[in-house]
Amino acid sequence: MKGLSVHQLQFIFGLLGNIISFMVFLAPVPTFWTVYKKKTSEGFQCIPYVVALMSAMLLLYYAVLKTNAYLLISINSFGCVIELIYIALYFYYAPKKLKIFTLKLLMILNLGSYGVMVGGTMLILHGNKRTHAVGWICAAFNLAVFASPLAIMKRVITTKSVEYMPFSLSFFLTLSATMWFFYGFFIKDLFIALPNIVGFLLGMVQMIMYMIYKDRKGNSLEEKLEEGGKKYEVDDQSLSKVKKSNQSETSEINMGETNHNNIV
């Protein structure tokens, strides 16, 4: 990249960030294909998608307040649309209890909290003060989102299994954090660069953990049923319940990882 101007580097890293983030946003598509085939979203969580929508909404507001932040506007506009589609599909196939929970979460987080933040900053702050205040809010929220994989990492260490932490997802999220860090660096935006430093470091730790634990069998269901070379006698109904519980837990964790990691 020798000879490239700062503006060219801004565009290159911003464009690469858009492309990678676009692919990450589409990662839950197989999950919703499963939901569509089963005609139910029971056993899955709406929280990752509601939080991802909030993150995209915050960053979109921040990008609008900035000048010439078209690359931030483009990816976060897409993020808002795709997350709304995911939430709509989840809501459509959810049982009544989960529908009520989803509506409450949307009302509290995406309408209530977001509305108070936008209204407060519009009324109280002006100019650069407003932009900086929203930037700090975005950075704080995104740092909290980036910290969400810590629960997954703890589970990997506990179970000695990486089934809850696919390498490809960790790789692309780390790559995305790298692109957006350099974009923030070249446009001299601390609020974009800082959270992505944390995202990059956590992503690297996840990939290292994957390499450490990938060849270990871990505490699988079969190992729990087999001890000392002897298979326990388990009736079909009990085994079915155990597997259903295990699959539900796995789905929730995988969905959480897919969407709780920040895109920008």
In short:
The chain has eleven helices and two strands. The chain is mainly alpha-helical. A two-stranded antiparallel ribbon has the order 1-2.
What does this protein structure show overall?
The chain is mainly alpha-helical. 78% of the residues lie in helices and 2% in strands. It has 11 helices and 2 strands, in the order H-H-H-H-H-H-H-H-H-H-E-E-H. The protein has a two-stranded antiparallel sheet. The radius of gyration is 21 Å and the shape is globular.
Properties at a glance:
78% helix; 11 helices; 264 residues; two-stranded antiparallel ribbon; globular; mainly alpha
Task: Provide the helix percentage.
Answer: over 70%
Instruction: Please state the overall shape, judged from the principal axes of the Cα atoms.
Output: globular
Tell me the structural class. Answer: mainly alpha
Can you summarize the main beta sheet?
A: 2 strands, antiparallel
Low-confidence stretches: 220-261
Distance between the termini: 23 Å
| Rounded Rg | 21 Å
Count of distinct strands? 2
Oligomeric state as shown: single chain
Strand order of the largest sheet: 1-2
Mean pLDDT, nearest integer? 82
Query: Strand portion, in percent?
Result: under 5%
